[in-house]
């Protein structure tokens, strides 16, 4: 089957999904999740190294959603954790992430929870994941054909009210994605246990313990299956000197060092509000990263007693208090 035939097949599957939804027309009082809707015709390597033919997104619809109403719903794009080498939309690294996604849908949002490229294939880096999510945002407002509505129109998304939430590696990706304008404006960010300045990890030494080192290595690039076996066995990563030097001069970790001060350059971005949530006892990404993020992003900081990951009670309080 040629490339055009493959695209038409994917398109046909999407049209069948939409027709099926329109037949039933309305969700129940509980939320509805449409699983694995294709958004990008690109192979995806799963955490178990098996391969899927496309990148998909789970779409959570709020209670009593109806395709026949005039209601439009605010949108949340949720980016899961996993350090760039594990996790998926179905199985995020922290169980509380699934709870947070369902909570957002229950409170009246259309929630998009996508898979994105993991660094499990030669040449893959964080920038592939960033491009995937930028493509998802473009997909939201793209009409397959002039006669068909876009996903945003089909699912009654209010594209003037779009937030992005990320946890751990997902928080890093969210910042990178929103550094520049996107096809749909992202106006609010909620970042859980994120890393905001990679260069703080590279001032003098290049050996780091555990998951923090894995995340750093994933952002830098892929090193091969044998490398990960060694990491899991020894619990440390040694970053070669040339990569350490490259990172020290790397512009992509969001912050630019000018006159000894860190500042985030949101060049042309539409982000208006940023909330950073971080555990004071985080052993994977130290709390000092949150303080750097607050300073560089002019963000609101919400701290809690605890470690790494998404703390659902705190996250819910932030959302209910409308700090964003």
- The number of distinct helices, counting runs of at least 4 residues, comes to 10
Major sheet attributes:
8 strands, mixed
Helical fraction equals 25-40%
End-to-end separation in angstroms reads: 48 Å
How many domains? 2
How much strand content do the residues show?
Answer: 15-25%
SSE sequence, one letter per element: HEEEEEHEHHEHEEHHEHEEEHEH
CATH architecture of the largest domain: 3-Layer(aba) Sandwich
CATH topology of the largest domain: Rossmann fold
What would you call the shape?
Answer: globular
Radius of gyration: 20 Å
Structural class determined from secondary elements:
alpha/beta
Mean pLDDT figure? 76
CATH class of the largest domain: Alpha Beta
Summarize the entry for a quick read:
Helices cover 34% and strands 23% of the residues. The chain has helices at 3-24, 95-106, 126-140, 151-154, 169-177, 210-220, 225-234, 241-248, 287-297, 312-320, and strands at residues 32-40, 44-45, 51-52, 55-61, 73-79, 110-114, 157-167, 188-192, 207-209, 236-238, 255-258, 261-264, 273-279, 300-304. Residues 6-11, 20-26, 201-211, 220-229 and 231-265 have low confidence and may be disordered.
